[in-house]
Design a protein that fits this description.
The complex is a heterodimer of chains A (312) and B (448). Chain A has 312 residues and is mainly alpha-helical. Chain A has helices at residues 2-44, 65-70, 80-111, 120-128, 135-145, 151-158, 172-200, 204-212, 217-245, 249-254, 268-275, 282-311; strands at 47-52, 55-61. Chain A has one domain (76-311): MetI-like (MetI-like fold). Chain A has twelve helices and two strands. With 448 residues, chain B is α/β, with parallel strands linked by helices. In chain B, 42% of the residues lie in helices and 15% in strands. Chain B has helices at residues 2-21, 51-59, 88-98, 119-123, 144-149, 173-180, 185-191, 195-207, 220-224, 241-256, 268-272, 287-292, 295-298, 333-345, 347-357, 364-372, 386-393, 406-421, 427-441, and strands at 42-47, 63-66, 69-72, 75-81, 111-115, 159-161, 166-172, 211-215, 232-233, 236-237, 259-261, 280-285, 308-311, 317-318, 322-326. In chain B, helix 16 (364-372) crosses helix 17. Chain B is globular, with a radius of gyration of 24 Å. Classes of the chains: A mainly alpha (312), B alpha/beta (448). At the A-B interface, helix 1, strand 1, strand 2 and helix 11 of A face helix 1, helix 3, helix 11, helix 18 and helix 19 of B.
């Protein structure tokens, strides 16, 4: 009997070994393509290292000089990275708040056994569609649609709603709204599907018993759906936030990389990209990346903690 | 099922790794007996648009294989193109040139194109080579400034241009007639030969319901080409008085409605004014502008072909131009030299550039022949002999105050200043935003 037990034990150990072997490829790829560049980024951030024309300047160790430069105010009188961090968070919120509200609403509608909406698969595909388009293409499309001679202005002028074309791509309000709109359109389908999966994972008997006890829909939502959905909700929220901090392609393409107007739509990654443009300034870009990493980490921990604490 | 998935994932990852390898140069095929010439079988040309490529296909190659490939004898000519905007072309080209020594023979850059805005960066580097050493020696017919522009600080010539680019005011004949009562180039020129007169005509045009220029950026090159100091002086960003003057004029034109738009010169807004329905009287540009960039005006249905003419305008200037530079390390030096010689010294090709492509070639003899030919006229310009006009203007071209930073300084200033013209920021903020842009873009340039 005892012998047999050992045999079983050994067998399970050998399975575990296979498990490790199977995940080796991932770790190799991760180490080469993610971990190594990350370490290199931190390393580069302590060096003066860029190109002036075809001449490579550096690498020369400069300690924390790059970080110091990053916090110096520019000619416009503010510290660029602070303004761009603010822009990034603001642009993310503009898109994310409606995204979560609408997605939550749709997820509730689709999962409701009382509504029992027909053709769910169809709607799910449709709302997910925008996510399949490359963000840069999407932005380019909006760039053409909303130009002063584009179809939107043509329609508005010919219908008599306005007399002269609106400069959608030159004004802060409209540029920020368009960026938020695009991010919303691209991501609300994805969020809806994730939240739906979360809601469907909740035991149906909970809803039934609540209904039998005479709970209103509002009560069911706040006392059953939300608390039980929390783990999924936190996941969706944090991934959206990290995605938001890394916002790049949409504003970059829509404003041609210049964060028009007055750098109000310049995001952190666009700033990073400016350093990596023609002068390939690995030192400064490295410093921005490291700060970005720290900010993302802090925000993630903070959000995770608060939502968890509320939940308890 | 899980095992299958694991295997699938592993395979995918290996493929991803292999994918990363594909950028590495493959070993060059061993030269066969047939290609006895010591030179490569592939000639790589780098460009930011298709203008020169089309001429190369038509007047040099034996066969146009596809959009990116030509054949000349045994040699395959391949094109690599990146957009110029925001320095993307320079960026990619720099990376390729820095990797030139390690690239396989067939992957090496052999010939690349460069614009006046940044040519100095390449001529003053080891990435380009003396074209006289490969057999381009006859510059007797080319315009002097095109040779100066392609020379390094010691006067070593590194490339040639296939065009000469004096720039002119390109005006709509019908609108000029309505505003000035004449569409005769000499009379129009007399009416706009100084900035004061130009501004006065702008006011007249507005009264008649027209715009003087399509965008405030249209006149930028006239000013920027008449600066007395470079963008970067002693390592510091420097805004010349002529650039300030352009800003004043733009502010004035935007405020008074003398300009149709304040937007990007290449954008849909500015180019929409080229249609017959456009209300703009003056556009600015050299021969390449109306033959390559005024497609809307040449549109069979919506355009206004023939309703145009050119004159010098308020200030002489040149704009752009495309130089071919020989890349150090090329494995096709003979063909590189042959292409260069063809486009500057082959009179038949240069004549076709003028008569068939509306170019102003870089061969004075050919240009002068057309200029003197009373029967020659450009149909797009209502039969006007543009070559005669440009031949006069070419005498005034000075290649001066250029730096390697010009492209992004020119582009950047226009973009950031537009935000002031659009009323989104005040003038100082617009200029400060531009300065911050340069500070971020060029670590080697001091910005105060």
């Amino acid at each position: 009997m005892a012998k047999q037990n050992t045999a079983v034990k050994n067998k399970s150990i050998s399975y575990a070994r296979w498990g490790y072997i199977f995940i080796i490829p991932f770790f190799i790829v991760y180490a080469i393509f993610t971990l190594y560049p990350q370490i290199l980024t931190v390393y580069n951030s302590f060096f003066e290292y860029y190109r002036d024309g075809l001449t490579v300047v550096g690498p020369r160790f400069v300690g924390l000089q790059n970080y110091k430069t990053l916090f110096e105010p520019g000619a416009a009188g503010y510290v660029p990275i602070f303004k761009y961090l603010g822009n990034t968070v603001w642009l993310w919120l503009l898109g994310a708040v409606p995204q979560f509200l609408i997605a939550m609403m749709l997820a509730l509608f689709f999962t409701s056994t009382r509504l029992n909406i027909k053709g769910q698969q169809f709607f799910k595909s449709v709302i997910y569609m925008p996510n399949l388009i490359m963000a840069s293409c999407f932005a380019m499309l909006f760039f053409s649609l909303f130009s002063q001679v584009g179809p939107v202005n043509q329609f508005l002028v010919s219908s008599g709603a306005i007399s002269t074309p609106i400069n959608f791509l030159g004004m802060q309000v409209t540029v920020q709204t368009l960026i938020a709109l695009m991010n919303f359109l691209m991501w609300f389908g994805n969020t809806t599907i994730l939240l739906m999966a979360g809601i469907q994972g909740i035991d149906e008997s909970m809803f039934e018993s609540a209904r039998l006890d005479g709970s209103t829909s509002t009560q069911v939502f706040f006392n059953i759906t939300m608390p039980l959905l929390m783990p999924i909700f936190i996941y969706v929220f944090i991934t959206s936030m990290i995605g938001g901090i890394q916002m790049f392609d949409v504003p970059q393409v829509l404003t041609n990389g210049k964060g028009i107007p007055n750098n109000t739509s310049t995001t952190l990654i666009m700033y990073l990209n400016q350093f990596l443009g023609i002068s390939k300034n690995y030192g400064m870009a490295g410093a921005v990346s490291v700060l970005l990493f720290i900010v993302t980490a802090i925000l993630s921990i903070f959000v995770f903690r608060t939502i968890r604490a509320d939940n308890k | 099922m899980k095992k299958l998935l694991t295997v699938l994932l592993a395979v995918l990852m290996v493929m991803a790794l292999a994918g990363c390898n594909s950028n590495k140069p493959e070993p060059a095929p061993a030269p066969t007996e047939e290609t006895t010439a010591a030179e490569g079988s592939v000639l790589n040309i780098w460009t930011w648009n298709t203008e020169f490529w089309e001429f190369l296909g038509e007047y040099y190659a034996d066969e146009i294989v596809d959009e990116y490939t030509l054949k000349k004898g045994d040699v395959t000519i391949k094109r690599t193109t990146y957009p110029s905007d925001g320095g993307a072309y320079q960026d990619a080209l720099d990376a390729a040139l820095l990797n030139q020594a390690n690239a396989a023979a067939d992957e090496k850059v052999d010939l690349f194109l460069a614009e006046a805005d940044y040519i100095i960066k390449y001529t003053n580097s080891d990435a380009t080579m003396d074209v006289k050493s490969i057999g381009v020696t006859d510059f007797s017919n080319t315009y002097k400034y095109t040779v100066e522009a392609a020379s390094d600080a010691n006067g070593v010539v590194k490339g040639v241009s296939f065009q000469c680019c004096p720039s002119a005011i390109i005006y709509r004949r019908s609108i000029a007639k309505d505003v000035l009562g004449t569409d005769d180039p000499a009379e129009v020129q007399a009416a706009i030969d100084s900035w004061e007169k130009f501004d006065a005509v702008a006011a007249q045009a507005k009264e008649k319901g027209y715009y003087m220029i399509n965008t405030t950026n249209a006149t930028f090159r006239i000013y920027s080409n008449n600066t007395t100091s470079p963008w970067v002086k002693d390592g510091k960003l420097n805004i010349d008085a002529a650039i300030e003057a352009w800003m004043d004029q733009s502010a004035n034109y935007a405020e008074n409605g003398y300009t149709a738009y304040t937007s990007n010169l290449w954008g849909d807004e500015a180019t929409s004014e080229m249609f017959a329905t456009g209300k703009t009287m003056c556009f600015v540009g050299p021969a390449w502008y109306f033959n390559f960039c005024m497609g809307n005006a040449q549109d069979a249905e919506k355009g206004c072909f023939g309703d145009w003419a050119i004159c010098q305008g308020p200030q002489a200037h040149f704009w752009g131009g495309t130089w071919m530079l020989a890349a150090t390390g090329t494995d096709n030096p003979t063909m590189v030299a042959d292409i260069m010689n063809t486009f500057i010294n082959n009179e038949e090709v240069c004549s076709k550039l003028v008569s068939e492509k509306m170019q102003f070639s870089n061969n004075q003899k050919v240009n002068n022949k057309f200029a003197a030919d009373a029967s020659y006229g450009n149909a797009f310009l209502g039969g006007q002999n543009d070559t005669a006009v440009f031949a006069e203007l070419a005498k005034n071209i000075k290649f001066q105050n250029v730096t390697a930073y010009d492209q992004l300084c020119n582009e950047g200033l226009q973009t950031y200043f537009q935000q002031y013209l659009d009323g989104e920021v005040d003038r100082d903020t617009a200029i400060n935003n531009f300065k911050d842009y340069i500070r971020t873009t060029y670590p080697s340039v001091t910005v105060e």
